Amino acid sequence: MEKPFERTLILIYTGPLFDSHLHLYDPTRAEGIPWPQPGDAVYGPRLPADYWAQAEPCGVIGAMVVEASPRREDNDWVLCTLDQDPRLVGYIGNLDPLAATFGADLERLAADVRFRGIRYGNLWGRDLLADQQQTGFIDSLAHVAERGLVLDSANPDARLIQALLALSDRLPHLRIVVDHLPNAPDLAFTAELQELASRPQVMAKLAEIPQVGDHGLIRDAAFYLDVLGRLLELFGEDRCFFGSDWPNSDHLANFTTTLDLVKACMATQPAHTQEKFFLHNAPRIYGLPGAFR
Q1: Which of the residues 9, 40, 173, 180 could staple to 36 if both were Cys, CB 3.0 to 4.6 A apart?
Q2: Model pTM greater than 0.70?
Q3: What is the 3-state secondary structure of 87-120?
Q4: Other CB atoms within 10 A of residue 154 CB
């Protein structure tokens, strides 16, 4: 039987794109930023105009920002920053479900239709497997689910997959997006990820695809095809979608190079699958405006 991605190239996608994962921040703010740190290659202001200078020539027509700070007040800063460009139609915030302020913060932020959920995982010293055993954590995430919002995870490893399985058992109506799975290729073949992918409320954001080898950026799409094919097989064409991870992706390659590599990896897929992956799936999954679906 033919395996995923063992077909000849069909076509390179040339249609419009929706980017489900980018970060905005400004270290010149009086309070500074927790990430990135001075000396990092991506340190410095990264604002909407900076993003669109890279993304618009590549055909991106809409995008979603993911919070890069654990500070609750920075959620409001990002939402205000989205006002600089109407194409930034969605936002995944960063709230702590164990914080006493969680309920009030969620209610305030959810009043803005661009706010589509929160991120929680292996980030900022958090541990989703342990934290969900704490009093109040599940109740807080139940409120996220009840509002039709999404939980994005962060930095996948085997423990995080176990945590997401346990969480989806307790909150089967919570939509979960697993971020950056291509950056953890060994997970694509584990029984735990297969079980997680069998649950229709769990989605896969295929960001952080590029990798570096002994000679720099690996540009050969064939290097990535087994893992990407496995993830597409597990989650299906309706639950996988594109994210650039800009500007964090600049550690490896610029926006155009990153996108060209992802397009080459997807070029063995039928045209309708690529259109779902690059344009339609993310807006539908996050409940964004109909114009992007």
Answers
A1: 40
A2: yes
A3: CEEEEEECCCCCCCCHHHHHHHHHCCCCEEEEEC
A4: 18
